[in-house]
Amino acid sequence: MLFEIHDPKAAPKPIGIDLGTTNSLVACVRNEKPVAIADCNGEILLPSVVSYAEGDTVVGTPAMRLASEHPRETIVSVKRFMGRGADDPETRRLGPYEFDDSPGDVNTVRFRVRGKSLTPVEVSADILRELKSRAEDELDRVGGAVITVPAYFDDAQRQATKDAARLAGLDVLRLLNEPTAAALAYGLQSKKNGHFVVYDLGGGTFDVTVLFLEDGVFQVKSTGGDSQLGGDDMDRAIANEVLEQLGWLAAEKSKPRQLTKSPKLTPAVVRLVLDQARGMKHVLTTKDVVEAEVPLPDGGTRVVRITRARFDELIAPLLERTGVACKRAMKDAGLKTGELDGVILVGGATRVPAVRAYVEKMFGKEPLVDVDPDQVVALGAAVQADLLAGEGRSDEVLLLDVIPLSLGIEVGGGVVDKILPRNTTIPTSARGTYTTQQDNQTGFEVHVVQGEREMVADCRSLARFTLKGIPPLPAGLARLEVTFRVDADGILSVNAKETTTGIEQSVTVKPTYGLDDETVEKMLMDALDHGEDDLLKRRVAEGRVEAQRILLATNKSLEADADLLEPGEKGAIETAMRGLDEACRGEDPRKIQNGIDELDRVTKSFAGRRMNRAIARAIGGRKVDEVNREVEHAKGIERAHE
Amino acid sequence: MFDPFTILGLPRRFDVDLRAAEKNHRELSRVLHPDKYAGGSATERREALTKAADVNEAWRILRDPVRRAEALFQLEGIAVGETNEPKPDPELLMEVLEKREALADAKNERDVDKVRALEAEVEAREKKIEETLASAKSFDGALVAKLGEMRFYRRFLEEASAVEEELAG
Fold first, then answer.
1. Is A361 among the catalytic positions?
2. Minimum Cα–Cα distance from A631: chain B residue
3. Mutate which of A221, A336, A559, A615 to disrupt the B interface (most B C-beta within 10 Å)?
4. Strand pairing partners for A147?
5. Which pLDDT score, from 0 to 100, does residue A257 have?
6. Minimal CA–CA distance to A424: which of A340, A332, A350?
7. How many CB atoms lie within 10 A of CB A634?
C-alpha cells in the first residue's frame, strides 16, 4: 500500500511559456496533445508590450494601444534588453525610450518611466505574470513552468530570464532553447529519425540549431545565431526607408549607418512609424506593393509606397547575416547540406516569402511549416514541462542541448583560455589549471568570459572574483584549479581552489551584467502589496508545490524499486513522507522545508542505489571484461565483412 | 581520477569502439539527465547533475583522439600537457615548419589541390600515430611524445581546413 498524498484539489498542471520579443504565449498538454491557452477574448498571442503610462501596469493589446500616445512609458520588445548593460549599443538604436544613465550601476539597462527606473527583468516579469494568470483562469492550479530562451542567449540573458520568472512567482522547471522546443513539438508528431535544422527567426532574435534525432533522443549537434537580429530589424529597415522618403531621416554619406535625425522625429513619431512599418511588412507577405498614410505634424497625411522588391532588397543584408550563422552551425555539426533530413521554420518572421526562399536555397530543401510558427515553441515547451513532471513519454524522450558560446577565463595579456568550447553538451563540467605570475602572490583574480574571440576585450564579460589566501610561493608554484559547471538550463557556476594547500575557497561571483540575488529579493518584496506577509504566503505555496512533486516522485520510486529497500528503510521513508505531508497542511514555510530536508536525508542511500541500478541497466549491466569480449567479437565480424 | 572509459562502460584502450561509446553515452544520458529527476529530492538532483555532466565529459574525451590519448596516459599516472611532456623532436619541428610554409604558399597561390594534398599527407601521419597507440601494450613515458606530435598535426589540419574554406569562397 503506497502512501496517500493529501491533495484537496486537482494536481497542478505544468505549463510551457514562450517569452518572445514581439509576442508571448502559454501552452499546456491536454489529452496528450500540446495546446495554446487563449485569453478570455480567444486571443492566443499576447503582444510583449507593457505600458506604465497610466499608473497601472497594462500588458498586451491594451498596452499596444497606449504605445503611440505614450511611447516612453510603453515598453515594446523588452527581450532585446535582457541581460544587457547600461552601455549596450542596443540603447542607441532607433527607439523611443529614455534610459537611466546614473553612473555607477551599469550592470543593467534601466528604462526611465514616469520618474521611476525599471529593469528589463521587471518588465518581463509583468508579461510572465499576465501569462500565469491566463493559465490560472484556465487550469485551476498551475504547476512548474518551462520557459523558452533563444539558443544563442548568453549566460547573463538566461539568468535575467530566470530572475524575471522568479519575480513573477513562477516555479521554473527548466529554461529550454527555442529551436529545441520547436523540434520537440515537431518530432513527437512526425516520429522521424535523422538530422534536422531549425531556422528560428523571431521578433528580435535569430537562432539556428542542427540536431540529430534518434529513438526519442534529441541531440543538439551545434547551434548558432544572433541574439539581436529579427523581424524587428525588418520593421526598422522599412521605418528607415519611410522616414527617408519623408525626408525626416537622411543617411550621412560618410557614415552610411549613422542617421541624421530631423527635429520632427519625436518619440511618438518613431513609435508610429515603427508600428506602421510592421503593418507594411505583414501586407508585403502576401502582396507585391504596400502603401501607408503617415500623419504629418500639420494635420495632413502623406502616402508612402514600398514594393516587395524594394523590401526584399532592404532585408537582404539581414538574411545574409543569418546565412553566415547557418553555415557555421552546419560546419560545427560536421554536416553537408545533402545530409539533412529536414528544415523546420520557426518564428513569425519566417512567414516573409524572401526568408522562405532564402532558407530553401541555402539548405536545398523545402522547409517544413506544418506547425504554426508562432505557436510551435510554446507547444514544445508545454511538452517538455509535461515530461519533466513525469507525464507523457518521459521514459523515451530526452533533450540533449549544448552551450551556444565558448566559456573561458582571462589569462595573461588579455587572452582568453577556453575551458568549455561552444556546442559542448550540457550539463557539463570542466577544469582549467593555472599558476601565479609573481613571487608571493596571495590573490588570484578570475575573470570569466563568454565568446569565440581570442581576446577578452572582444568577448562578453560574465563575472569576476578574486581567490584569496594563496600561500606565498615563488611564481609558478601555486596550482589554481578553476572548475566550470553548466547545468541543464545552460547556466554557469564557477568554483576555484588552490590545490597545493588543498583548501577550497568559497568565492562570491559578482555578475558583470544583470542583477544580484539581493536586488531580485528586494524587487520581489516591492512587487508584493503587503511585503513580508505576501512573501510568507508565497513561500508556503512554493514549498507546497515542491513538496508535492517530491512526494509523488518518492511514491513512484518506492513502487518501481521496492526490491532495493533495506529492512526498516521503507518505514523510515514513509514516516518522513507523513511528516512532510503534515507540514504542508500548516502555514509555516520553514516546517515544509524541514520536512523536505528530512525526506531527502532518509532517501539518500536508496536514491544512490536506484541511480546505480539505472546506470547498470543503461550500459547493459555488463562487466568490463564482458564488454571487451563483445568488442573483439564485433570486430571479428567487421573484419570478415571487409 | 576521472576515467572516461569506466564511466561509459568500455575497456581502457585507444581503439575504443566509438559506436558503443556513443550508444552508452545516449543510454546513460537517458537515465541520468537532470530532466529525469526534476521531481526528485535535492540529493537526487545534485547527483544526477554531476553524473550526467561526467557522462557528457567522458564522451567528449573519448570521441577526440588527442584527448582520449591524454586520458590513457593520465590514467597511468603520467602527466600530460605541453609543459609536462618532453620537448618535441627537432626533426619533427622542422617538418611541421616546412608543411606550414607549404600551406602558406598554397594559400597565396590559391591552390586548393595543393592544400588538399598537404592535408592528405598529414592525415596519413596522424593515422600512423593512431595505429601505434592502438597497438600499444601500455601507456608509458616512451610513448608520451606521440601526444605532442598528434597536437601538431591536429593544429595543422585545423588551419588547412580554414584555408580550404577561405579559398572556396
1. no
2. B17
3. A615
4. A17, A175
5. 46
6. A332
7. 13
CB atoms within 10 A of CB A92: 9
- Report the alpha-carbon distance of residue A96 to residue B139 in Å, rounded: 66
Q: pTM for the full model?
A: 0.87
pLDDT at A85 over 60: yes
Sort out which chain B residues have CB atoms less than 8 A from A336's CB and list them: none
Q: Contacts for A514-521 with beta carbons within 8 Å, 24 or more apart? A: A514/A83, A514/A107, A514/A108, A514/A121, A514/A156, A514/A159, A514/A160, A514/A163, A515/A107, A515/A108, A515/A119, A515/A121, A515/A160, A515/A163, A520/A121, A520/A163, A520/A166, A520/A167
pLDDT at A477: 82
Which of A573, A627, A638 is the mutation pick for testing B, counting most B CBs within 10 A? Answer: A627
Q: Answer yes or no: do B40 and A424 touch at CB < 8 A.
A: no
Report the length, in residues, of chain B: 169
- Measured at the CA of A226, the angle between CA A144 and CA A374, to 5 degrees, comes to 50
- In angstroms, the separation between the Cα of residue A403 and the nearest Cα of chain B is 12
The Cα–Cα gap between A82 and A105 comes to 16
Closest CA to B45 of B33, B56, B54, B55: B33
- Predicted confidence (pLDDT) at residue B47 exceeds the cutoff of 60: yes
* Closest CA in chain B for residue A607: B44
| Complex-level ipTM | 0.87
Coil vs helix vs strand at A226:
strand
CA distance A310 to B18: 52
Q: Which three cell numbers stand for residue A306?
A: 514600398
Residues A473, A467: contact at Cβ < 8 Å? no
Rounded to the nearest angstrom, the gap between the alpha carbon of residue A526 and the centroid of all alpha carbons in its chain is: 25
Tell me what percent of chain A is helix, strand and coil, each rounded to the nearest 5. 40, 25, 35
User: Smallest Cβ distance to A614: which of B11, B31, B54?
Assistant: B31
Among the options A138, A200, A401, A581, which is catalytic? A200
- What is the signed CA dihedral for A256, A262, A264, A269, rounded to 10 degrees? 20
What pLDDT shows up at residue A104?
55
Chain B residue nearest residue A593, CA to CA:
B42
Q: How many CB atoms lie within 10 A of CB B25?
A: 26
Nearest CA in chain B to A606: B44
Has residue A621 got a pLDDT over 70?
A: no
Over residues A262-287, the pLDDT tens digits come to 666 777 888 888 889 999 999 999 99
Q: Please answer yes or no on whether B34 and A611 come within 8 Å at the CB atom.
A: no
- Of the residues B44, B46, B83, the best mutation for testing chain A's interface (the one with the most A CB atoms within 10 Å of its CB) is B44
Nearest alpha carbon to residue A405 among A346, A492, A341: A492
Closest CA to A1 of A555, A486, A543: A555
Q: Peptide bond preceding A427: is omega within 30 degrees of 0, i.e. cis?
A: yes
Sort A30 into a burial class: Cβ within 10 Å, 0-12 / 13-18 / 19+: middle
| CA distances from residue B95 to B116, B125, B152, B162 in whole angstroms, order as listed | 17, 12, 10, 20
Task: List phi, psi (to 5°) of B68.
Answer: -65, -45
Nearest residue to A274 (alpha-carbon basis) of A91, A93, A127, A112? A93
Catalytic residue flag (residue A101): no
Name residue A425's amino acid. T
Residues of B in Cβ contact (< 8 Å) with A380: none
- Please answer yes or no on whether A214 and B51 come within 8 Å at the CB atom: no
Q: Note whether A199 and A344 are within 8 A (CB).
A: yes
Instruction: For chain A, give the number of residues.
Output: 642
Catalytic: which of A13, A18, A39, A233?
Answer: A18
Can you tell me whether residue A280 is helix, strand or coil?
helix
A294 HSE (CA, 13 A, CB side)? 29
Mark yes or no for CB contact B10/A618 under 8 Å.
Answer: no
